[in-house]
Amino acid sequence: MQQEALSFLSSSLPSLHHNFPSLSRLRFNNFPALSFKPNTSSSSSSFFKSPDIPSLSSTTTTTTTTTTETLESSIHEKLIYLDSLGIDFLTLINRHPPLLSTALSAVESVVDYMTTPPINFTLQDFRRLVSMCPELLTSPLTSHTIPVITFLLREVGVDSIFDLRQALRRRPRLLACSVDHQLRPTLYFLQRIGILDPHKHTYLLSCSVEHKLVPRIDYFEKLGFSRRSATAMFKRFPQLFNYSIAENYEPKLKYLMVEMGRDVREVLEFPQYFSFSLENRIKPRHEACAAKGVRFPLPVMLKTNEAGFRDTLEVHFCNE
């Protein structure tokens, strides 16, 4: 298995690149949507120029001007309202343009629901939620946001409103997810592999089963682990799902097997290995052990604080 794992690791997987569309920073008086000017140069028939009948061109111009003024007024009201909450409207629409067309009344309903009892987020917390999940302000309250809250409390088993706030602070993106198409399928997947306390791991519910969770189990299968063993690792340490294959799994496994000379199967019993910094904890601790000719089990080497590790190292070295 050691040789098979090393062979697999040697072909590094491609890095993930996130391409986010960039919009130029908008100014209130310079929205593209508001710069529309109707074309009034085309000639009309003599019928429509009759003094008793309004010109079609004139009517279109008036209607367009009225619509534009109404839109401008609506945007201005949202700008003032969000500014009163300490939310930068211009930055927000740059990241989430649908906010431009969302009714102010809908935005106010979301704010009221999230910042009054029973949810009762502070304005500071709410601003953070919106900065990380601007979709919150444009999602329909009754058909989206309230069902997400209800799902977390009733189906996931989040114990209290306090715990709910904690879960949403940790992963605001939950509020942008569909219950039927994202949250519930992920919940069922976690339960199926044996994670029976999903209320402790709500941060995973916003993850795609197909694109994030399953590929991480598959990765360890390709190292030579059985499906059952690989799944058991994630059941034992669900946070493992959150780590990058290219930036976490690969470099740490290579160091474990090549530099430390350990068997890859050690991570089956101690998947928490991946939670420690390679540069700040794993390498220094291994090098300190190697200098003394000491070899500790991974939990002993990594879990103790610095003082405890040094004391254990000295005691073990003196007893050799």
UniProtKB/TrEMBL annotation:
Classification via Pfam families: mTERF (PF02536)
InterPro entries named among the record's database cross-references: MTERF (IPR003690)
Region (Disordered): 38-69
Sample GO molecular function, one term: nucleic acid binding
Source superkingdom: Eukaryota
Full protein name: Transcription termination factor mitochondrial/chloroplastic
